[in-house]
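From the shared-data thread, chain only:
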Amino acid sequence: MFHGMVLFLLGLLTGFAEQHFANVRMGLAAHLEGLMNGIFLLAPGAIWTNVRLSATATAIAFWTVLYGTYLNWLMSVLAAIFGTAALSPITGAGHSGQPRQETFVTVGFMSVGIAIVIASALILWGVRKQLSS
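Structure, as tokens:
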């Protein structure tokens, strides 16, 4: 819950800066990513006591959901700063960063997707027993 509110606040603060980014549309996306990922973190936080996983799986779920949500916001901010179009054809239209920036943002966004899928699957697996109770 704490991290959800931290990320939500980061999203709000990003909104104040969005007009100063190289890619303003991506700045808006970064603002919204902070807000949405912060709200998303509140959902697992609200049900966390009902997630039944091994200690290792619990740790993996916890850290991958934090990694994925914070990095999603951070990569969006960096894409806005760099003006990259990596994996963002709509918000990146008409923009392009240096090749190393494009690669960095692409790898970052791809790792976010993998992390969020892993975290979501683990959390779903951990609450499945609640359905049968």
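The longest helix spans residues 99-132.
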